[in-house]
């Protein structure tokens, strides 16, 4: 999650673990960091995550409840998609990625390509 800072990552971990949307106070109580956080700091982080598309919020009275905008894997895949789409040479990015992929990763890519070719 290189796109996120340490505190943003810690907050996202809370959102991914939460079984339902949470208030800022819930995140503040659950987040683990090496320093004491202010309510407004967590509020700002959640607002930034919402703006970046990592978190979704819904109004609950005067406050918002937050949840992750997808699973960890879905959001990371969207981030990879943005990296490829915003590159000036997406073909080279994909080539470098494919050349650096592990055997297991290549196996997964082959499976997906086979599925697409067979129309699944």
TrEMBL record:
<keyword id="KW-0805">Transcription regulation</keyword>
<dbReference type="Pfam" id="PF03965">
    <property type="entry name" value="Penicillinase_R"/>
</dbReference>
<keyword id="KW-0238">DNA-binding</keyword>
<keyword id="KW-0804">Transcription</keyword>
<comment type="similarity">
    <text>Belongs to the BlaI transcriptional regulatory family.</text>
</comment>
<dbReference type="InterPro" id="IPR005650">
    <property type="entry name" value="BlaI_family"/>
</dbReference>
<dbReference type="InterPro" id="IPR036388">
    <property type="entry name" value="WH-like_DNA-bd_sf"/>
</dbReference>
<protein>
    <submittedName>
        <fullName>Penicillinase repressor</fullName>
    </submittedName>
</protein>
<dbReference type="InterPro" id="IPR036390">
    <property type="entry name" value="WH_DNA-bd_sf"/>
</dbReference>
